[in-house]
Amino acid sequence: MGISRPVLVTTAALAVAVLLAPAPATALPVSAPLPGEPGPPGGPGPSRERSGGDSALSRAPLSATAEALRHGTHSFVKDRGYPRRTTLKSPAANPADKSIKLGLIPYHSIAPRLNELQKLSDRVSVEVAGRSANGRELYLVTVTAPESAGKVREQERMRERIENSPASAARDKQLKSAYKTPVFINNNIHGNEWEGTDAALKLIEELAKAKDAKTAGLLAKNRIYLNVTANPDGRVAGTRANANGFDLNRDFITASQPESRAIRQLAIDKQPAVMLDLHGYVNGTLIEPTTPPHGENYEYDLFLKNSYANALGMEKAVNGLGYTAEKDGVKPVEIPFRDQTEGWDDWPPIFTPQYMPFQGAVASHTIEFPMRVNNQSYETLPVEELRRRSAINTDIAGAAMRATLDYTHANRGSVIADQIETFRRGAAGEAQRPVSEETVPGVPGIGPEDVYTTTFPRAYVIPAGRGQRSATAAGRLVDHLVANDVRVERALMSFRLAGKTYPAGSYVVDMRQPKRGIANVILAEGRDISPDVSAMYDISGWSLGLLWGATVDKAVSGELRVLGRPVRAAAPTGSVARHGDLRLRLDDPRELAAVNSLLAQGVKIRRTADGAAIVPASARKHAALVAERFSVVFGSTRERGVAPLERTRVAAAGTAGEQFALREMGFDVVPVSTAILNAGFDWRGVDALFVSTGLNHTALTPAARDAFRDSGVAVVGLGADGAALTSAAGLLQATAVEGNGDANGVVRVSNAGGVITGGAPGHTFVYSPVWFTGLGSGVRVDQSYGGGNPLVAGHWRATADGSGGPADAAGKPSVVSGTSATGAKVALFGTEPLFRAHPKGVFAQIGRALLNH
């Protein structure tokens, strides 16, 4: 019998998972961290991101999640002159805005203030750079001397030459003289670290009104871009997170949120050479560069040279304000590279200043002003004291901004040359220069502990056809690369590389390109840095090449001869077989979203023994629509399936990222907690319980325990808290063993197949890993940690007593499942498949477990 050819859906593949189914470099706390707040660098390691606090915002609303998934990024106009005056609509006054108590500007007053500043001077331009998760406008202010449209086009041509023809740009003296150095100042990305916004507005006014020759010279040779508030939702609510409960300063590789995508686009379009990210609260004022480990994909010699010199200038300016510990409670500035040994690193590229060097910044800094005004301080200190502290913080933020402008202007020739050199090395495929006191003169204290480099491969290939485990995942990964300004080509003919033949349609990432650093960040496996430092402040592994569900081949060397064309978006992948019943692999969040959409429309679907979905031929038209919408592939099948799939409404006690990921897969999510269950939760409205944190069985009232027991809902538990609930409720006989709570990263696993891990990749993510022992009869092992050392990339050491390390986890069950005495399906995960909505390729393990209710 011949194989029927699929019907190709011709609409372009979606760049991100779209539409739901129908219906810490952050603050170093002076005092002990509050629940859900990161601990200090060098102190206790990562703890599970708790629900509550900022994450309570994730109870918000499906609509905010949908907007985050739907929104693209703003593309900045490149051929209009300056000034670019935009009359901003003023939001309604909100007396509950948390900024007001501190004597700072509330969000609703920013637009009127910017409208006035535009009238004040032709140096000030305002554009809307995007919208927040809750729909608030993100204001980008550009301060520069006026430019005609022709001059703007000339500047854009120079910017493109710097990136795309860096060798030529390096030889062009006129370019280095005429190009305006881009400086980017990012404010208030943590909503309850307010004062950068107010300092930025003061700086804009100063520059607008100044009549001196120094300011005129500064603005003639530089453009200053200010993101006035990067997190207006958090600013208004007084929360660290945005309206979806996300810490935006952890989102710069995943880019799940509209605010971080807006900043990413600004970085690509404006290509800042120098940037600041304003935070609080560390006393004394903390100014990066950081301690080791340093990101291995940077041109770190160029970066350290400029970042350290600029930090010294900012230190002088801040200390020069005259604040003292005795008089004001303000300690002197600290520069981690100089003053600390470890604990404040630039290893993960998830933070704004750690992402920016991959888009051309040769100096980027987190600035932590000193005087705490948020969290408990906000609630307990007198208003007068809060306002005194905020005024000091605003003053210090302004001093750091002005010092950075002074450094950039005084060194603009070398700053531009170093940005060009960053791109030139990438395009030429040259080796990195290890830092030393010889390669970075003027920076004292450089030692072997500061040397982190990598060997870039010749290319990466994302193969087409049978070499690709998931066309849907491959398309998403390609679109993500393009969104990060990585050059990707699609082969027009088959080709051979590193001893392997690839078919036409395969995607090629030539690593001889200006932005090779971000390409390698995204695609490389990463590195085990456990031997290098005692603990890490935040995650240490993140490989999209291993965790996003696509097949990615690394060609270490070889002659690259590919006839291809540049990719602006991945080729369409959605298709439906022409004949017979349809089979949909549920290996990807988009496939889960597609099946949930079909179930919501009343389509009768069955599942196979290995967890795939069987859609009847009668629903082919419905399948065609969701294939186009979610870019998924329906094949033909003669399988009948072993059980029906039903629409699953999920009660979720978990982090904001986990709830967001569940919604991304199309599940209806009802947030729950111990308090909500004790108040009398109606279990009749849900089919399954997802629990990772915020739900303590022993703290439930007898009535709440009985209601939960009698509900018969399926339970999917993550980590120690999820296992504790199932154990206390007597649902599954399995003992959870907690590994080192500091551990996190990418690990190897062995999958048993079946409903939960059928088709799952051989890698997953862990954060405070757990494994299971003492399994009762009937408890199935769905997945186990790999043998030997299962850690591929990240940081995982044994604890002080020698236990809890990767050797203890090797070969142990990481995912188990079974049926409780009451007939409820139960699954326990010692891994983190939904962590911060990041590891897309392993989301489906949770989705399959929930559907199997």
Automatic annotation (TrEMBL):
The keyword Protein transport does not apply. Residues 103-404 form the Peptidase M14 domain. Residues 1-27 form the signal peptide. Its cofactor is Zn(2+). Residues 31-61, 427-448 are annotated as: Disordered. Keywords: Carboxypeptidase, Hydrolase, Metalloprotease, Protease, Signal, Zinc. Residues 35-44 have a biased composition (Pro residues). One of its GO terms (molecular function) is carboxypeptidase activity. InterPro entries: Peptidase_M14. Transmembrane segments: none annotated. Pfam families: Peptidase_M14. The active site is at residue 368. The keyword Zinc applies. Belongs to the peptidase M14 family. PANTHER family: PROTEASE FAMILY M14 CARBOXYPEPTIDASE A,B (PTHR11705), SLL0236 PROTEIN (PTHR11705:SF143). This is M14 family zinc carboxypeptidase. It comes from Streptomyces amakusaensis.
